[in-house]
Amino acid sequence: MTQLTVADPRAAVENLIRSRSEPSWHAELRRRAMSSFLSSPPPDRVTHLWRYTDPAPFLSDEAAAQLRLPAETGGGAFAGKTGEAVAPPSLLKDAGGAVVWRHGHGDGSISIAPELEALGVRVTDLGAALKASPDLVRPLLGSLVGPDVDAQGCGKLEALNLALWSQGTWIHVPRNVRVPKPIHLWLTAPAGKEMLATRLLVLVEEGADVTIIDECEGGANGAVLNSAAEIFAGQSSRVRYVSVQRLDRTAAYHAAERARVERDAGMLTAIASLGGGITKSDFGSLLTGPGADVELFGFLLGEGKQHFDHHTVHDHRAGKTRSNLDFKVVLKDRSRSAYTGLIRIEPGCPDSEAYQENRNLLLNDGARAESIPELEILTDEVKCTHGATMGTLDAQHLFYLMSRGIDRAEAIRLIVGGFIEPTLSRLDEDLSARLRRHVEESVKDLGSPRGAA
Amino acid sequence: MEPLKHSPGAPPAADVKTKPELHIGEDYASRYGFHDAEAYFHKGRKGIDHEVVEMMTRMKKEPEWMRRFRHESLDVFLSKPMPRWGDTELLNSINFDDIYYYVKPMAEQGKSWDDVPENIKNTFERLGIPEAERKFLAGVSAQYESEVVYHSMRDDLKKKGIIFLDMDTALREHPEIVQKYFATVIPAADNKFAALNSAVWSGGSFIYVPPGVDVGIPLQAYFRINTENMGQFERTLIIADKGSRVHYIEGCTAPVYSTNSLHSAVVELVALEHAYIRYTTIQNWSNNIFNLVTKRAAAYRNSTVEWVDGNIGSKLTMKFPCIYLLEEGAKGEILSVAFAGKGQHQDAGAKVIHAAPRTTSRITSKSISKSGGRASYRGMVKVYPKATDCKVSVECDALLIGKDSRSDTYPTMEIAEDNVQIEHEARVSKVSEEQIFYLMSRGLTEDEARLLIVNGFIEPFTKELPMEYAVELNRLIELEMEGSVG
Predict the structure, then answer these.
(1) Is there a contact between A201 and A161 (Cβ–Cβ < 8 Å)?
(2) Tens of pLDDT along B31-46?
(3) Which residue of B has its CA nearest to A352?
(4) Which of A211, A452, B328, B350 is the most buried (most CB within 10 A)?
(5) Touching check for B38 and chain A: CB below 8 Å?
(6) Model confidence pLDDT, tens digit, residues A113-145
(7) How far is Cα B60 from Cα B168, in angstroms, rounded to an integer?
(8) CB within 8 Å: B385 and A365
(9) Chain A closest-CA separation from residue B265 CA (Å)
(10) Which residue from B406, B410, B424 is facing A378, i.e. has the nearest CB?
(11) ipTM for the assembly
């Protein structure tokens, strides 16, 4: 492990390029991203994307100054070896799929079931893929979460990620291959005032089918995690991407995810936001071919002084496309959530349908929720609806449960569980079971006296 | 009485780009050495600076506090940047130096209809104002250019103690009550356009309804823009004292001109305990006008404020009628319709701020985008901490007609209290082929079928209007819908 002080961010980029002997095309991409990062203004708080969250914690010099890079050049430690039991035991049941386990700045392993490898499925370190599969990686990398920053400074943190990512994963599912078990990415973020930039690139070819679970934890003592994910869902493919964030309450988390969903492809994104001190995320899908169908289910459970700012985008760029979104928010103590979601239907995309629902449950005063579900519709032959609600615990529900001898705390847990359950039940059984466990853990101390968290 | 004559060769404007140092209270005449105020304004001049403001306030013989308020407001206007949100491209195309900020139509306000100049009269005749008056209307204050020129009021309203005047007259005749409420709901620094209005306002209506008085019939005013490149900055203030009720109607149309005009009004409503105010607007400015209006109401204990807001005309409208529910039991309702045709952007919406417990609000927005027009709903619902047991319902419906039309929905909900119930819903759709087919199978032409569907779509709005307005609105929609097939 080498530690690098980023007095000069451009030098940091050069160091990364050199230590990983990256191909020149990617080196150029990094340099371009760093240039636009350095030359762009900080995100404008007037644009609603940054209206509710201060970008400073993600940009702090303190964090960047302690940027660390793995000594290993891309790939070496992560070459796809099967069956190395270094993954956390809880993941072993996923055998038959693949597990990418990363710990801190450099340790970790990638294991992939041999039968998958035989089918041509690749789960490798992204740094290695730059060299091993440039023909596939090069046209995709940075095309959805890229180096460009707009005049309002939106995209600045995405540019920073592209310039400085040090841990990346490449997933490639060839044509018509069905991956029976999830590919599980497990990151334990490093502790301490440091920034780690991670990147995921997924190519799912025509007719293929895959589930990816992207989970992160750790990050104690004020770590900054900047993650980017680009997912390409080819024609008629099925992709399920589940993001579970359970970082330490002191961590700052910035996530940008974009999927390009082609003709007749189905993409399901599930988001569970549970941890982190400050979370700023932007998940979205571009529906580029007719028949593309996108679902996004998300929920967050906030307590203490947690701050969540989630943005979603469903951009319909072809006719006969459909999107559906359901985002649920539960807030306790002095936690805060801002949810902004945009549905955009571009001109000339008839027969599109888009639905969006955002429900907020505030468990006590002191919690704050913001909701901005937006529509931009530029085609007339469409069906679009969105809805948002905010409310408190239903006193009647609470009374009913308590009159049945259930104590107040347990009653609140039941109601919150019931609030989120409709979202969970729309997911595959193994996914919903996994997420339900996290929910149960999070609501464990709900209903406890105020200020306990 | 001498009607205003506009000379195209206006006197050369002072350098409006360099902002002169301002020392409120010093002698402007010697500082700028300008000439006779009457002659100056009768010729008119474009652009805005402290000299224009000083001239205006002298012409109007305003009290010192208003003079200071105008100058301070101008400083705010000059120092505030243009908004960085909304349709910034259109907003930034406004050339503030190319606008008349004050034009006085005649020396004295017409006391009777006979005194009103013929050309102005003709405009009003076409709009049917005398007719309306003959029927049942309480008072008519018709604003031509910047000054109210005709104003009458039925005797029985006067007897009830209701004050219904143009703003300038109200400032002269009731200075204490104007000063008490003026700019308390919308301070000059609220936004750039409110600051501009505060600096150069002219005309508008002032209404005071004494405690317990029910006005009974709607009060009305018509506004017209008739001078090319002329800004219209009317200022309206309505105070409904405890337990009183009033319905005010404002309607606008304007002839079409070739260059852009700016309309930037400020409307303040104060509903005291148990009072009721309804404010109805039908806006049909010509399609070259920027209509940037700040409307806000302060609603006190158990009062009700309703904005009924129809936007049909203008090039760009940015108008978000707002209600501050300040005390327990206050109610707010905003009902709006926007119709955006070719080349139009209706950026309309609603704001409700719940600052007290047990306050309720309902927002209903209907928009129609047609032939490449763009209608946006931009709303804000805010619930402050401790504003418990609030109920909020927001419903937005949008109808799209034509492939290039655009509909946006930007609702914002900021909630800092757990014990609230908030519901927001929005739907966007096109006129359904099944409905058209059904109506056509009953013998209607396609045009007629579409018109019927559109009229049905905005019916929740039209049914809230007095009959003659509903008729006028239906006629406007009919005109807008002509030839919408294909």
Answers:
(1) no
(2) 433 334 444 445 557 8
(3) B429
(4) B350
(5) no
(6) 888 999 999 999 999 999 999 999 999 999 999
(7) 8
(8) yes
(9) 24
(10) B406
(11) 0.74
